[in-house]
Amino acid sequence: MRTNSHHHHWRGMLLAIIALFAIQVQAQCPLENKAFNSGEFLSYNLYFNWKFVWVKVGTASLSTVNSTYNGKPAYRTSLITRSNGKLDKVYAIRDTLMGYVTPTLSPLYFRKGAEEGDRYTVDEVWYTYPNGKCKVKMHRKRHDNTHNRSEKTVDECVYDMLNIFTRARSFDNTSWKKGHTVKFNVADGNGVTTGILKYDGKANVTGEDGVKYRCLKLAYSEWNSKKQKYKQYGSFFVTDDANHVPIRLDIVLNVGNAKAYVATMKGLKNPVSCIVK
């Protein structure tokens, strides 16, 4: 487990989005992609609560394209976050994440290069599927140039904070009831940990694009081994349609609270059927 809460801000954001659809199934778990096309591009504006006032402090973008991994077809997803000068004085964020999945949405590789505050770390996860199991090799390079390497083989699927997002958007959540929770495993460069998501029903949310969307509301918590309990890291809202696009994200940082609102959505696979007139 991580000992610094700054590692959790984007981790919690994406895991909460995708955990709504996460289930424990046989390793590798091929799944038909129903939610996105190559060429999808999402952009966000980031806000920070500065002395009781919400101030714009940066941007984020999430894109997916057709690619190859080890010579085979794959989707490559990239998430880039950049804070501006207003937040840099308090807590600089310079994150670049990249993940590969098969055409049937099984994870292949994940990398996160993160400058958060005064620290820079690199996480990597490699996936293979021997004998119907999932084997993950993990590596973290810390800000002091020390390294941590580990590996684990399990019967269930293992995900990371980016690749599970591309996969989980295609799950069907129509049977979910308010208050439902799900537990799941996720890997980063430091090992495998456990998260819990609670579904809190539906809400109407207005994006930075001025459009009001009907959304699914989620709350994400992660196990804190020191305190021996789960800690909540945010609440999140995704479109209540086949795209499951994140519209608003309420994120708990170690220096305060942040929000992200969708600004643009391009290249979506399905019609946006959750707009509230």
How does the major sheet shape up? 14 strands, antiparallel
What is the number of beta strands? 14
How large is the count of helical segments? 3
Terminal residue distance: 44 Å
Précis, in short:
The protein is mainly beta and 277 residues long. Helices cover 9% and strands 57% of the residues.
How is the topology of this model organized?
Blueprint: H1 9-19, E1 36-50, E2 53-69, E3 72-83, H2 85-91, E4 93-101, E5 107-116, E6 119-128, E7 134-141, E8 147-154, H3 163-168, E9 181-188, E10 191-206, E11 212-224, E12 229-239, E13 246-253, E14 256-268
Antiparallel strand pairs: 1-2, 1-14, 2-3, 3-4, 4-5, 5-6, 6-7, 7-8, 9-10, 10-11, 11-12, 12-13, 13-14
Tag the structure with descriptive keywords:
277 residues, 14-stranded antiparallel beta sheet, 14 strands, 9% helix, disordered N terminus
